[in-house]
Amino acid sequence: MKLSQKILFSALLLLVISGCGTNQKIEALENYIGKHIDDIVLSKGVATSTFVKADGSIIYEWKKSYRIIPIGPNCSAERLVVDKNGIVNQYAVSILVC
What we know:
By secondary structure, the protein is α+β, with helices and mostly antiparallel strands. The protein contains two helices and four strands, in the order ααββββ.
């Protein structure tokens, strides 16, 4: 197999793997809507970072790194927006090449 074919195959494989993982992450994050952040931290662990928005709500972010051979390192970031009462009302997920 030529190098260009290997690169194309690797890129397609990454898209397929990322798509499946993204759908699962979105479904998991959807289940957090309406739940209290304390319960989520107990199951997910402590967030890797937080950000306080101007309206007083807080964005909690969990970043993870993983390696897909031969493509290299990749990262995912899951974010939950929590209101002043500690209730999750939004979510987001990103798959990035690190």
